[in-house]
Amino acid sequence: MPTTGRVPATDGPTTLDDMIAPARPRRLDALLNRLGLTGPVARDALLAAVILVVTGTLLLGLFEFVLGVEGLTVGPVQGVVLIAAACAQAVPLVLRRVRPVLCLALVVACQVVITAVSPEDLSVGGVPQMIAGYTVGTLLPVRRALAVTAAAAPVAALAAAATALVTGNDLLMPVLNHLVSGLLTYMVSALVGTTVATRRNYTELVRLRAAEVVRTQEATTQAAIFAERSRMARELHDVAAHHLSGLVVQAAAVERQIDSDPEAAKKGTAWIRAQGKETLDSLRLIVGVLRERPGSGGPGEDAHDAPPPGLGALDDLVRTARALGDTVDLVRTGRPRPLAPIADAAFYRVAQEALSNARQHAPGAPVGIAVRFEEREVALEVTNEQAAGRGTARGSERRGMGLIGMGERAHLVGATLSTGATPSGGWRVRLALPLHHEVTTTAPAASAAAPGDRGQE
After folding, report:
1. Domains of the chain, CATH where assigned
2. Nearest to 154 by CA among 117, 108, 119, 200
3. What pTM value is reported for the model?
């Protein structure tokens, strides 16, 4: 079976051309499937049987009613051989889609017999020859299909010439008739098959490209959904980790004061209640964004739909940390300038996460926050000293979502994130955003902490 790169005929509607085919061919295809004719050989066998019956019937009618009117005579033996050869010419069509060249060769061999036994003025054949030539055109490359059919075209003419030489009849006209007939029958059929195959390949290519576009769009949509879910997970983690770490610290202080200083304990519980309400409000803000329908303009667009905080909210963040007993210093240098909202929020969330990590991993250690607006970049640096009574960070500690979230935020805005231990045993987080990339969202991923960094939550 040739392997030509052409799209072979299939059993079902697998191409766009098949899918947009009229309803009648689809019903015929379904009928053949119900009859059990599902493979190409089985369906071609049915085609060969139909052509065989039609050919035999037409030849019997030709010999019975037409030849006498035209003044032609066919002997009994000659008629039987002619009918047998014409019917046998339909049999090779069973192989037309699995062995197209062999099918054409057998059809041509039968045509040689038909030409040899036919009367001089009688031409028999046509349908199996056209089907074989058409199939060769659809399944073989164009050059090979034309070469094969061109080789088959003069065979009948050569057989007619040999017969004329044996019988002593006129040689020129029969040879020309059979040569022209062969060229038209085989080569024109092959050209038609080539045209159909080209259209079929083009339609299949269009379908594949359309399917690829659909798959690309679906993948892009899924990636966008996944990125948004990841971003919201980072938001939820940052808000919850920041507020809950403060609640844990304050709850521990209240536990110590509840007997010795009830009044301070009451103030502590009031603070915990206020922080809990703030935490719930922040979480409602994020969940509200998830539920929000853009442009709805409905009642759901309330104060909870406000944009996330940025560098301008660092003072409130520092005041909250100091209220928890943390020692935090905030320093700003350079001329402040506006950042893209997503970059502004990224700086705030990184600072928030760094403070939460310092409170969890180095409780009581002083923390320094520095915001620098330089000529070519904006940098945020959060540094905490080593906690009293604790050694340097151990690389075996679990690394949580904090550093991963910081790295993803940096990557999203085109910034560079560097984290690691300081020479004094503390920890430093630095986020730097090039000013000419303020709104870039495809910069290289930020560098995360090296193996052995201490666990960050």
Report:
1. 16-215 (no CATH), 311-457 (3.30.565.10)
2. 108
3. 0.47
